[in-house]
Design goal:
Length: about 550
């Protein structure tokens, strides 16, 4: 099935990739705008140091349209399907006008899989990645090289020669041009930012969320959605690192492909299980099947896969993994139909990441079978999983935060209800225990007129500012009295404690607002000066003999 699909895609690629070739030897007469060097290039399979020399005769070489796939020539040979790695040389002759300003030039070669060494008139001007035996692929890094003015032959032909190391796939993708240094720097900075720097930003975002989610999981180990989100982040980071890594982290390209295959398969296994936890889907048989699939991928990668059969096994693995994508989308659709509370905020990000994974899966499949990625246009030359992953991280974190906030709200509501129950029972017991409604008060000492005047200033200040934060120390300072003395004087004049006096004003104001407005209780509590809903619920019944909710219910009607 996979082999048939491979040959079918190759045939489609051949039919769709017939484009008009650019001139073989373009002339560079002005660099006011980038001069394209895309089109026909000479190509040869094999390695020879003489291929870099500008005087080398490449007339017998085949031609290839670039940007495009380099493996077409390899796979067309008798042993092509069995050839996984090797060297390809590319050559392009361009004529540079003698009247062009004598300044450094910028060379843009797109993204080359897997490594390259680039020469201009036989002089090595740059390299990216590593060649065998210590092979290291930097296939997604754009190539930007500087051509010194000393290397340029003005008024004559100039030769660009590129030595390319391929492993499983080889290609040149993206813009190919000669530019002035200003345009070259702008293209280099933008290309590096979009293709490499953003990947590291996504990795940083993923690691941050990984630590936060791991903390939640440690605090709430029964919530398995946190565990599977952590696993999902780890597997996603493997896939994003494949696009941007500068370092050889794997030891060999074979190990790199195996780890990439594991990461891709693991994401497709952990993600639907995560959806089961988020959407409360009980699908144990499907989860068992997913774990078996991941175990088989690991088993084959460790025991059976080698360089000779890597291409075939990679195609089989990609085709099988495709089947999980539609199932993931069906989980989101099912949750939307059931109107699950988390479906709306999360399903958009979830479906986008699935589509991105399918898109990138198609690209990897085309690379494995040697099809031309240009046949679907430039948009299909770029991996997009890393950008969708950023959206998924944000969307998933949003859902988990909403879940946590909802749990905290439920706890707060439970505490408030419990507190109201305790207060109402206390009031009931107080009423039952009262024998009369009056309370005897003892005589209070006589105070001076000056003290009464100071207390009156305090009372006036309280009436004007009770909705704000008022402290005993602040009030005492306004009338130049010690805070302890102020409390005693205030009670002597008003027969009330200072705090009770302030709270009574606040409660009366709140009671009025409860009846005359539709504002929620917590807004009213804060607006009259209370620092928390809990304090308000505790103080209100002391003056109104009922909770705020009951007060509103009884007096709102009238």
């Amino acid at each position: 099935m996979a082999v048939s699909a491979a040959f079918l895609l190759i045939m489609i690629a051949g039919l769709c990739s017939a484009v008009e070739a650019a001139p073989v030897n373009p002339a560079v007469s002005s660099l006011a705008a980038p001069v394209s060097i895309a089109g026909e290039w000479k190509i040869a399979i094999g390695d020879d140091a003489n291929y870099a020399a500008p005087g080398f005769n490449d007339a017998a070489w085949d031609t290839v349209n670039l940007p495009g796939n380099l493996m077409t020539r390899v796979l067309a040979t008798a042993a092509g399907l069995a050839r996984t790695e090797g060297i390809i040389w590319l050559r392009k002759t361009i004529r540079i006008d003698r009247d062009l300003p004598k300044e450094d030039l910028g060379l843009v070669l797109g993204r080359i899989g897997n490594a390259d060494e680039t020469y201009f008139n036989g002089i090595r001007i740059g390299a990216t990645g590593e060649f065998p035996p210590a092979s290291h692929s930097m296939w997604n890094h754009p190539r930007y090289y500087t051509v010194s003015r000393e290397f340029v032959r003005y008024g004559a032909d100039n030769v660009i020669a590129v030595r390319v190391s391929y492993y499983l796939f080889g290609e040149v993708l993206g813009d190919m041009a000669i530019t002035n240094m200003k345009d070259w720097k702008a293209k280099r900075d933008m290309g590096k930012f979009l293709l490499i720097d953003l990947c590291y930003f996504v990795i940083g975002m993923g690691l941050t969320l990984l630590f936060i989610t791991a903390f939640f999981f440690i605090r709430r180990p029964a919530s398995q959605e946190y565990l599977f989100y952590c696993l999902q982040l780890l597997c996603g980071l493997i896939m994003v690192m494949e696009l941007c890594t500068y370092w050889d982290l794997y030891g060999s390209l074979l190990n790199r492909f195996k780890i990439l295959a594991f990461g891709w398969a693991a994401v497709n296994v952990v993600y639907p299980i995560f959806l089961h936890r988020i959407y409360d889907l009980k699908r144990k048989k499907i989860e068992i099947a997913l774990w078996i699939y991941l175990a088989l991928v690991v088993l084959f990668a460790v025991i059976f896969v080698d360089t000779a059969n890597l291409r075939f096994n990679g195609i089989i693995m990609i085709v099988v993994t495709y089947l999980i994508g539609p199932y993931n989308i069906s989980c989101h659709i099912s949750a939307l139909r059931r109107k699950h509370p988390y479906a709306k905020p999360f399903s958009f990000f979830g479906i986008v990441i699935v589509i991105a994974a399918i898109h990138d899966g198609v690209l990897y499949l085309m690379k494995f079978i040697g099809a031309d990625l240009n046949m679907f246009g430039s948009w299909f030359q770029y991996m997009i999983f890393q950008y969708a992953a950023a959206g998924l991280y944000v969307g998933t974190a949003l859902v988990l935060v909403v879940r946590y906030a909802k749990i905290m709200d439920d706890i707060e509501d439970l505490n408030t209800s419990l507190e109201n129950f305790v207060i109402e029972n206390a009031l009931l017991n107080e009423r039952l225990g009262e024998k009369d409604g009056s309370q005897k008060r003892g005589p209070y000492p006589v105070i001076s007129d000056m003290a009464e005047e100071k207390i009156q200033k305090v009372i006036n200040y309280i009436h004007e500012n009770y909705t704000f934060d008022i402290s005993r120390e602040g009030l005492a300072a306004t009338v130049d009295v010690h805070p302890d003395s102020l409390g005693k004087l205030f009670k002597s004049v008003t027969s009330k404690k200072l705090g009770d006096y302030i709270n009574e004003l606040r409660v009366k104001d709140a009671a009025k607002r409860l009846v005359e407005t539709d504002d929620n209780v917590i807004s009213i509590a804060f607006s009259v000066g209370f620092d928390s809903l809990r304090t308000f619920n505790r103080v209100f019944p002391k003056f109104m003999n009922m909770t705020p909710e009951k007060y509103r219910k009884e007096f709102k009607k009238s």
